[in-house]
Amino acid sequence: MRRRFVNQFAASIFLSLVVPRLGADEVTPPNNVQPALVDWLFEDATSQRQLDTKGPLLWSYLFHAEQLGPLESLKTALEGDGYRFKTFIRLTERSAEPGYMLVMTRVERHTVASLNARNAALTGTAERHRAAYRYMDVAAAP
């Protein structure tokens, strides 16, 4: 129970602090991660977080659905593709988008171009499971 709370708290901090800094035009349309976000993320990773973006990093991918079922199906599909399950987050009715978030991770190398391609693929995969791909984040690999 405590671990779930910590995961929910961490995700809420990410959603409340990182996403508003991007600006409204950079997170639309809602079912796609814009290239401007990828540029910003790479810049932030090197300048603010001191990450080496030329090496393998821990990438987190966040998905949204109003119900948990589509995310459970998506989780299974992504695990089959080598992604690791991190957590499900229940969003409150006060959230901009009530429902649930799924967080999946994978250690991999990306360039701006390869991450844009990955985002396009994840958008399609999410839509096939009646979910939406919303955000990604990066951290040092374990």
Tell me briefly what this model is.
This protein is α+β, with helices and mostly antiparallel strands. 45% of the residues lie in helices and 25% in strands.
Describe this structure in words.
- It contains four helices and four strands; from the N terminus they run ααβαββαβ.
- The protein is an alpha+beta fold.
- A four-stranded antiparallel β-sheet has the order 2-3-1-4, with helices on both faces.
- β2 and β3 form a beta hairpin.
- The relative contact order is 0.23.
- The N terminus is likely disordered.
Q: What class do helices, strands and sheet pairing give?
A: alpha+beta
* Largest sheet, spatial ordering of strands: 2-3-1-4
Shape: globular
Main pleated-sheet profile: 4 strands, antiparallel
Give the total of beta strands.
Answer: 4
Low-confidence stretches: 1-31
Distance between the termini: 24 Å
Number of helices: 4
Radius of gyration: 14 Å
- Secondary-structure element sequence? HHEHEEHE
The overall average pLDDT, rounded, is 81
What is the strand content?
25-35%
Q: Residue share in helices?
A: 40-55%
